[in-house]
Amino acid sequence: MHTPAILSVLGEDRVGIVAAISRVLADSSANIEDIRQTIISGIFSMTMLVTIDEEKTPFDELQRRLTEVGEEIGTQVTLQREDVFRFMHRI
Amino acid sequence: MHNISPEEIVETLLMITQQNLDIRTVTLGLSLQGCADPDIEVMARNIYETVTSRAEQLVPVCEAVSAEYGIPIVNRRIAVTPLASVAAATAATDLTPLAAALDRAAAEVGVDFVGGFSALVHKGTGDAEARLIDSIPAALATTERVCASVNVASTRSGINMGAVLRMAEVTAETARLTADRDSFGCGKLVVFCNMVEDNPFMAGATHGVGEPDAVVNVGISGPGVVRAVVSSLAENADLTEVAEAIKATAFKITRVGELIAREAARRLGVPMGIVDLSLAPTPAEGDSVADIIEAIGVERCGGPGTTTALALLNDAVKKGGAMGTSSIGGLSGAFIPVSEDASMVRAVNDGALTLEKLEAMTAVCSVGLDMIVVPGDTPVETLAAIMADAFSIGVINHKTTATRLIPAAGKQVGDVVEYGGLFGSAPVMSVNGWAGSRLIRRGGRFPAPLGSLRN
After folding, report:
1. Which alpha helices (H) appear in B304-436, and where do they start and end?
2. Do B69 and A80 touch (CB under 8 A)?
3. Ordered domains of chain A (ranges, CATH)
4. Does the pLDDT at position B18 exceed 90?
5. pTM of the shown model
6. B369 has a chain A CB within 8 A of its CB
7. For residue B7, is it within any domain?
8. Mean pLDDT of chain A, nearest integer
9. Smallest CA–CA distance from A50 into chain B, residue
10. Who has the most CB within 10 Å: A89, B158, B266, B420?
């Protein structure tokens, strides 16, 4: 089952954030469909649209791995199913 | 990004992390009609087995949905068929074993409250209903998770005044039996006019007889989100702009409710019922309906202008919500429980908010006289008269009204009671001493109003 999800990362800018997150996604067979990134007053903000292959890596397992790497690099990483955003902002 | 902008993503995240956006409750409604048995012990066992088997997956499903969508689901609850109708099968006078069975079942499946120790007596009190009402004080005193509710009035039938007085006595008795917990038993007891069949919110949730065997109903939340939006408007924004902003926000909150309801129902394999659009406050800082009223421009909740602000809020929430779901139901009106809303408590302490103003507010929103602590020595006739006033508003205006009054044993005006958690704490409010005791003692039935003749 391929599940679209939104990954958001908030934290202090530092070397290797994109690399660390991308590595977890690649290792988990999650594909990055789109990526947007900005730095506002030194705060790193990135949102990604990813597609998760739940047969290879279940949703909660990927969430656990991302939270772990988020803690290592000192950023807040959130992974949510994409439809929550679609539902909230579109009819 | 599927046309979702980073700004929209950040807006959603801020609503959840900073403005207390959550789903207040996912409530599984269950029919217990099939549990009836002449032997009350057998009936209790049937109830336990039905609830534990049908609700087994409720908590795990809600936890998974909550984690995957990143939306907190604060409460998972169960509503059952009003038990008086099931209890008609037995001649037992003490129906507390049925409450005990519900309590054990709720604990087993990990839900904090189960609603439905209930009776409908708006036109007359049947034998089973009388037995259930008599059992309420002991049931609430000896269980943790069971909630009771009784419908004593409706627009179509008027007010059963005898039942109103009886419920005032039951409230007082429940307060006495739970005196060691500041009469908290009364926090689990709601008396209704025009009770709805699909209310997901405690303590008044039941599973109406017109419902399917099982159904998932969702209650949204979000006073914090609405307050943040109103506060972000320009100081001189006019009321049309305020209503527009609330409407747009209510749409978003409702959409989240609709999504969670659909997904929870799908995973539980039961039909989705309704999304209840009530804004439900919590004692958390900022998650307050009173704060919205003050953000709209009233100096302190309860002051002149409060009813206007609340009416505007309630109407705008419905208009926005109506675009967000085709399944509006339940109570769908802002809640104004005093103890559960820190700024309501502050307004009472400041002398801005009185029982009489809360009654006026009831006319333009949902269940008005809610979680109100009054002196423990308040006469039952006075309690009944306060209830009757609230129900008259409901009967005449074709709306639900309800009371959850707590005559806290041994407490006087100025004392404070602490219930903790979502129930918060509250000052004991003063009660007008000029009650209509003689009116209440007349009994009989307040006739259905002319407005009920719609056919």
Report:
1. 306-324, 342-349, 355-362, 380-396
2. yes
3. 2-89 (3.30.70.260)
4. no
5. 0.94
6. no
7. no
8. 91
9. B1
10. B158
